[in-house]
């Protein structure tokens, strides 16, 4: 069963037929939020201090030590996005569903736990057109379109240094393909259309680290501290570009001449250092209130095309800026000894603000959202169904304002692992 789900999830991650997003045309696409896991997303992405033996929190690899010594954990989730784009009085609505994550976690020793997972990392999907009248050749239409995305496979390890201190790391492999094109079409039969097309292939590694510390207080209360660090990397990516002319008959295109021959060349992809700090107050086993702060030199990744092969020309619309994110989250934990079902459920809420993923044409692209969620236990099983809701606003009215609703649904389940059975 798990093998079937893994196969379907991998196919979904590869497809990446995302919502039409104008901001995704820059760099390597719109970087997916690392907080899309419905369990943590219900708390606005609060994750640096979060530990749960039924759910996998890959945002802080030190949290894997929460996995039970004799348990195998499977965690799988989906997100459904509904967006409303507005631009100078015009509006557009779109919807899409995608994989949020798929992960497994298990113990190696009592002090050493591991997790393996797949998450979408960036998504690129856009199509816009500009029509300009031309008295000699009729109307001239310029079409900008792109699709694709990058996924991440991680293999994480966590170690219990003491009963209160855990450390861990994720080794990540980024992979995916991105296609971009600019097409010039003319109404006249006396002019050939032309297209610039480029495919970018990403195959590279990255690392991130985490730490968690539990400080006991009076009356069974405690403080949780979390710290994460993602290393900066400068990676090579492979580009393959071509420029050609073509004619159209019906829906079929016929290539007339290749202006720029197909060839591969190397460009660069830079990942910034990212520092995360979290603190949470735990009221016994009843509830938790926490805050996460995140700083990065810029959000996502900086793609720089080889300047000697830049077929799209110089494009300085986007500027990478220092990025800050704040998440405030709350969880009312389940009472696992209760007899009534609603007491077995856990409830979550939170808000987040992100100062700016980048500046586009001089406008900072900030993000704000409110979150809520609930976990439903599956009776007679060590399983929970997690539901999350997120409503937010992204971008700026001077360019494109995106209002979005995201619904997340995940299954977290645990089963025995290497348990010795006794026979009489």
Please supply descriptive tags for the structure shown above.
424 residues, disordered N terminus, Porin, 62% strand, mainly beta, three-stranded antiparallel sheet, 3 helices
CATH-scheme architecture: Beta Barrel
Strand and helix order: HEHEEEEEEEEEEEEEEHEEEEEE
The CATH class turns out to be: Mainly Beta
Shape summary: elongated
Q: How many distinct beta strands?
A: 21
User: Which strand order spans the largest sheet, edge to edge or round the barrel?
Assistant: 2-3-4-5-6-7-8-11-12-15-16-19-20-21
Q: What is the total domain count?
A: 1
Q: SS-based structural class? A: mainly beta
Strand content: over 45%
What do we call the CATH homologous superfamily?
Outer membrane protein transport protein (OMPP1/FadL/TodX)
Q: Gap between N and C termini, in Å?
A: 31 Å
Largest sheet: 14 strands, antiparallel, barrel
Spans of at least 5 consecutive residues whose pLDDT stays below 50 are 1-17
CATH topology: Porin
Helix content: under 10%
């Amino acid at each position: 069963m798990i093998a079937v789900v893994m196969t379907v999830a991998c196919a979904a991650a590869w497809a990446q037929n995302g919502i039409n997003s104008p901001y995704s045309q820059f760099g390597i696409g719109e970087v997916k939020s690392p907080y899309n896991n419905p369990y943590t997303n219900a708390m606005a992405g609060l994750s640096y201090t979060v530990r749960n033996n039924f759910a996998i929190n890959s945002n802080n690899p030190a949290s894997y030590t929460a996995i039970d010594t004799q348990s195998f954990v499977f965690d799988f989730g989906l997100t459904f996005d509904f967006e409303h784009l507005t631009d100078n009085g015009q509006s557009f609505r779109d919807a899409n569903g995608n994989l949020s994550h798929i992960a497994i976690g298990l113990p190696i020793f009592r002090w050493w736990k591991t997790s393996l997972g797949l998450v979408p990392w960036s998504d690129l999907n856009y199509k816009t057109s500009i029509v300009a009248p031309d008295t000699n050749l009729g109307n001239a239409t310029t079409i900008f379109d792109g699709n694709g995305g990058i996924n991440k496979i991680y293999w994480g390890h966590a170690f219990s240094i003491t009963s209160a201190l855990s450390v861990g790391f994720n080794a990540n492999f980024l992979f995916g393909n991105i296609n971009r094109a600019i097409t010039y079409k003319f109404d006249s039969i006396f002019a050939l259309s032309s297209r610039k097309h480029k495919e970018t292939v990403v195959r590279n590694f990255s690392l991130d680290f985490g730490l968690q510390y539990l400080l006991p207080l009076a009356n069974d209360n405690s403080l949780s501290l979390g710290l994460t660090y993602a290393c900066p990397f400068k990676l090579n990516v492979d580009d393959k570009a071509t420029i050609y002319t073509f004619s159209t008959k019906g829906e079929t295109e016929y290539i007339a001449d290749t202006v720029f021959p197909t060839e591969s060349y190397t460009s660069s992809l830079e990942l910034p250092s990212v520092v995360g700090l979290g603190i949470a107050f735990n009221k016994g086993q009843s509830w938790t209130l926490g805050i996460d702060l995140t700083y990065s030199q810029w959000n996502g990744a900086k793609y720089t095309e080889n300047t000697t092969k830049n077929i799209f020309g110089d494009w300085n619309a986007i500027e990478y800026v220092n990025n800050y994110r704040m998440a405030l989250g709350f969880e009312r934990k389940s009472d696992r000894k209760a007899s009534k079902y609603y007491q077995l459920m856990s409830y979550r809420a939170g808000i987040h603000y992100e100062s700016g993923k980048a500046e586009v044409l001089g406008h900072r692209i900030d993000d704000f959202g409110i979150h809520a969620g609930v976990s439903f236990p599956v009776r007679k099983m060590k399983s929970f169904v997690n539901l999350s809701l997120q409503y937010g606003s992204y971008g700026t009215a001077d360019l494109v304002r995106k209002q979005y609703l995201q619904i997340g649904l995940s299954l977290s389940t645990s089963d025995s692992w290497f348990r010795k059975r006794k026979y009489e």
